[in-house]
From TrEMBL:
Main location: membrane
Occurrences of domain Neurotransmitter-gated ion-channel ligand-binding (ranges): 6-172
CDD domains found in the cross-reference section: LGIC_ECD_cation (cd18989), LGIC_TM_cation (cd19051)
Cellular compartments annotated: Membrane
Keyword Transmembrane: yes
Species per Swiss-Prot/TrEMBL record: Elysia chlorotica
Record keywords, A-Z: Ion channel, Ion transport, Membrane, Transmembrane, Transmembrane helix, Transport
Gene Ontology terms, MF aspect: extracellular ligand-gated monoatomic ion channel activity; transmembrane signaling receptor activity
TM spans (from-to): 177-200, 206-224
GO CC terms of this entry: membrane
Family: Belongs to the ligand-gated ion channel (TC 1.A.9) family.
Full protein name: Neurotransmitter-gated ion-channel ligand-binding domain-containing protein
Length: 234
């Protein structure tokens, strides 16, 4: 099995959900589908809809949406004369991601995509990553997160069900937050200190202080709306 990410669509901090678009390239051998090409005009492979071919019962076990079969009804599967079957379902993955916001917005997150069987046991289906289980050929960087690394590991069997985990390390691109949150807050802090330079009889000290306080409240609301509601890391 090989995972080929195409893009990190978004990471919803408030809901702690990662949206990824990618392809799971899966291959296996099915002896019942092998044939001798010389008996069939030299045909060595063909495409067939996935609904008419046996497929492993794979699901994304940490998906936040309904667990459903990968791929779609008309998606083609390539079958070789040797019995080798290639199945490359592409999809948008919505998976849960426990976020650590201690260093927000200068944070790095680790999010997982866990692939497992639904009913088949480890003896029946064994999910094995290839020698190099990650392909970066189709990856396009986004504007919010930088994908630093992906590590594929086999997890311990859970009730004899085989599982594989793709751990993604994401680094937040901070330019937006520096320009739109940090620098304005620093400017407000400097503005607040100017109230002490106003003459006592100017009559604008309270008005200026209230204006700065309201601006702080607005920025606090913006930041709070984008933060996950968790008390595990603050």
């Amino acid at each position: 099995m090989l995972f080929e990410p195409s893009s990190i669509m978004s990471l919803d901090e408030a809901e702690q959900v990662l949206y990824t678009y990618g392809t799971l390239k899966t291959q296996w051998d099915d002896d019942t589908l092998s044939w001798n090409p010389s008996n069939y005009s030299g045909i060595t492979s063909f495409l067939w809809p996935q609904d008419d071919v046996w497929l492993p019962d794979l699901v994304i076990s940490n998906s936040v949406t309904d667990a459903r079969r990968l791929g779609f009804k008309e998606m083609p599967v390539r079958i070789e004369s040797s019995g080798a079957v290639s199945w490359f379902p592409s999809m948008i993955l919505a998976t849960s991601c426990d976020m650590d916001i201690t260093y927000y917005p200068f944070d790095t997150q680790k999010c997982n995509i866990i692939l497992s069987t639904t009913m088949s046991t480890y003896e029946e289906i064994s999910i094995l990553p290839r020698g190099n289980p990650i392909s970066w050929a189709e990856y396009s960087p986004g504007g919010s997160w930088e994908l630093k690394a992906i590590v594929a590991t086999e997890l311990d069997n859970q009730g004899d069900i085989t599982r594989i985990q793709f751990e993604m390390t994401l680094k937040r691109l901070r330019t937006y937050y520096v320009m739109n949150i940090i620098l304005p807050v620093i400017f407000l802090s400097l503005t607040a200190s100017l109230v002490f330079y106003l003459p006592a009889d100017a009559g604008e000290k309270i008005g200026m202080s209230m204006t700065v306080l309201l601006a702080y409240a607005v920025y606090l609301t913006i930041i709070a709306d984008n933060m996950p509601q968790t008390s595990l890391q603050v």
